[in-house]
Amino acid sequence: MNAPRQGFAKHFYEQIDRTAKRYAERKPEQEKVLSEIRVGKNVDVNLPDSIRKRVGQLRIPLELDLPADAAPSWAPMSTIPSGPAEISELNLGPVPDNIRSIAEERVLGTNNLMPIAYLIRGSQVSRSVGRVVIRNRFGQRVGFGTGFLVSPNLLLTNNHVLPDETFAEKSVVEFDFAANFAGMLLPSIEFSLAPTRFFFTSELFDFTLVAVQQNDSSQRDPREFGWIKLHESDPDRMVVKGEFVSIIQHPNGESKQIALRDNQVIDIFDNFLHYETDTAPGSSGAPVYNDQWELVALHHSGVPERDEDGDILAVNGQKWTESMGDHRIKWVSNEGILVDRIVREIKNASFSGEKAKLRDELLNLSPDTHPTESEPSRVSPPPVDVSRVVSSVTPAISQVTSGLATTMTIPLSVTISLGGLAASLTSTPPSSAAASSTTTSVTDDRSSQDPDLQAALAELEEADTRPYFDEAADSADVESYYSGINPDDLSGPELFEKLFQLLEKTHASKLSYKPSVHLYPWIDLHEDGQLRSIYSGKKFSAEEFIREDFRIMQLRSIRLREMLAREGSFDAESMHEAAEALEASLPFNCEHSVPQSWFLKRQPMRGDLHHLFACEVGCNSFRGNTPYFDFSDFEETVRDSCGKSVEDRFEPASGKGAVARAMLYFLVRYPDKLASGLAKKQRDRIETLRDWHRKFPVDRYEQHRNQAIFQKQGNRNPFIDHPDWADKVSFDEVSA
Q: 284 catalytic, yes or no?
């Protein structure tokens, strides 16, 4: 393995080496454990005393819905002390045999049914988990990790994520960086780290504890996200071999994800825990929970799969190289540091002044206690913001802007409020004439008052005073952006991997799909201040497009409300179908060069500005989700002003070069995001895209777009900056 050994990466790869060594030493024992677990002999891989301790530790009342006549003599979860203790030690009375039996089955991995309360609790504890954006002393982003609050003021992550105070001072933690039900990112909140207030790290046990400070601009406080209590407890009480654990993480710096109950513990030894799970770089520093959502370990490293020569293998089975990036390594096992080891290290360290107070707060303050006035108050996880949840139910509802408020409570009631206009969906719907009148007046009135609309129009007005394209600044940006890539030294697949890593790493702002806000006011403007349909070339007023999109956005909301009022009741499937129909009948004037159905309307693809273009509704519908094609008789045939469409083939009348480069960008940025079968079709048409790319070279409009998107989104289209690279990149890496 020729892993990099400098800077931030040095710490990461050294941890891999140490973890792999421990794994190799214990592999015979772990293989024996796995063989026993796979045939259901979970009891045989644990000492009887370990199982007794583990079952005794369970918070059984949290897990089971008891019949009404089985009122327990033992306390509910809320009254059980937060510290570890066996049930018999709590003086809660005898546990019914049937309850203890189910508890044992769950511990031993033979009963995988979980109560709904399990998901609710998991959602609560997940709020304290954040994405760590790692920056070096120059403020340059060098990677991502995961961290989580373990007190109102302290964050726990790995030493190899934040190895020293210099890294910590420049890095930040971002909470609520997560997608909703529709895959749309929620608004996140960023906090700076304060190593001068508190910083304690251990390279041996690979953990770092650092203070988090309030966000000055928003006045948000990290304690509102809750925290996870660290318990110094016998590991046998917390987890046994064969038991499942769950990991909440930000893999590869992506939005928050969870490896849920498919992760079996295969070894517990010394200060470490080994388990099989889906984790990736960026998951370093993630919390490892048992089924009671108690913290059992800090995830810190994986064991890569190697071939017989000792070389690390990539996820595609080939030999891994540095140019692929560590996220392409195939991991065979993972390791966490047991939480009791971390607590002992913290307790044994010497602190004074404020640092001692923060350490004592960590050890003594529980999220379930009620602190005195001198102690920081615990903020319980806030109630679900249903206006954010409803936007995830269907893409149509998700278009409601800040000028509208949508509230849904499922399955009891649904209410959609438009400023002063509100109607219960269980009320009698208005007559069609009244509804039509209301729709017109409300959309006209609300559109003009919407703050997002006003901001978009203000940016459009400002466009008249901005330089359209700064060639000198753009040249400097291009040189800096690709400074680490020399295509002459790389093969086609290696260049693909390098560009993929770069585009993914620098895609800092993953925008929601709001073309009237993000695209039309500046990015997609031509130098004359007009928008042009990407397929027909027709000119349109940007203000016209912006106002029309906002009108449609609000009209969708009103029609959905009216439709639901008529239906009286609905399920998730019918609601999704209704929203899809509304979106089809009220489309935006925006074209995805890669159709939304190809990536199931998921983010960040849906809002990625590099493949969004202004396009009148007629051309948008004319193309549909048809792949691009080059007709031999295109110029001689009678065709629509938008182009020619026959079965599964479409050739636009205009914009071929721009859409070809947008498609090539998409395939490099998202090589594994296309729905099944579509990737192969696009690989088969790469030569068509390359041909259009050569015949219709980059113009000033595309350079302006690329520069503006770079400033707003963080990444660039390499085929605009370096047109010759289109023939050098191999697209065989795009997943089939």
A: yes
